[in-house]
Design brief:
mainly beta; Immunoglobulin-like; nine-stranded mixed β-sheet
Length: 119
């Protein structure tokens, strides 16, 4: 079983607002919500691959919003797609746990940005 999942966001439009995406974390049984009150989420988005140039860093109140930390519910989005170009951008979502100091990547993928004809 993979330690992380891949979620690709295809055909977003340059200069639009990235549509909110709800993310729910579950315990190993797949049904019990994961309590993330000890976790701090972070998303880094890069152009040109997972090691490419950073175009956006999302944290709580800046592209990430907890719906419920106790129930492991997070929303990713609500920021403008104004990264200066179109094409494929790569991201990953990490959680850092305060008590243990452990950082884990749970989701990664691609965001495809298409050209906007309205400016």
């Amino acid at each position: 079983m993979a330690r992380f999942g891949t979620v690709n966001y295809l055909q977003q439009i340059n200069n639009d607002t990235f549509t909110d995406k709800a993310i729910n974390f579950f315990a190993a049984d797949g049904t019990t919500p994961l309590d993330l009150t000890d976790a701090t989420p972070k998303v880094v988005i890069r152009k040109g691959g997972y090691n490419g140039r950073i175009v956006e860093t999302c944290t709580v109140s800046n592209g990430l919003t907890w719906t419920s930390q106790v129930l492991g519910q997070l929303v990713f989005g609500g920021f403008d797609l104004d990264w200066g170009s179109t094409g494929d951008f790569y991201y990953d979502l990490q959680l850092t746990y305060a008590t243990s100091g452990i950082t884990r990547t749970y989701i990664r993928g691609k965001i495809q940005i298409l050209e906007d004809s309205t400016e």
